[in-house]
Amino acid sequence: MICSICGRKLSNPKSIELGYGPVCYGKVSGGPKIKKKAKAAISRPQAECPCYDIPGQMNLEDYLMDS
Questions:
Q1: Is residue 21 a contact partner of residue 6, using CB atoms and an 8 Å limit?
Q2: At a CB cut-off of 8 Å and minimum separation 6, what does 55 contact?
Q3: Most exposed residue of 27, 37, 65, 67, measured as fewest CB within 10 angstroms of its CB?
């Protein structure tokens, strides 16, 4: 199906139902654009970052003292 206003191909099911793309719908209706469905957020466990003491490694205080 294509948009009734601009002729672009419609892929969003809501746009196909209305006959307009999201931008053209906003222009015709004077309202907000059609919003796409948000993808479900994938929650990943945070990996713990171990702190290592590396010989010769400077920390912030060492850096500031040298300046």
A1: yes
A2: none
A3: 67
Average pLDDT of 18-39? 73
On whether the CB atoms of residues 34 and 24 are closer than 8 A, the answer is: no
SS (H, E, C) the chain: CECCCCCCECCCHHHHHHCCCHHHHHHHHCCCCCCCCCCCCCCCCCCCCCCCCCCCCCCHHHHHHHC
Exposure letters 24-36 (e unless 16+ CB within 10 A, then b): bbeeeeeeeebee
Angle at 57 between CA 54 and CA 58, to 5 degrees: 150
- Residue 48: pLDDT band (50, 70, 90) is low
Q: What is the token pair recorded at 19?
A: 């006959």
Query: Are the CB atoms for 12 and 28 separated by under 8 Å?
Result: no
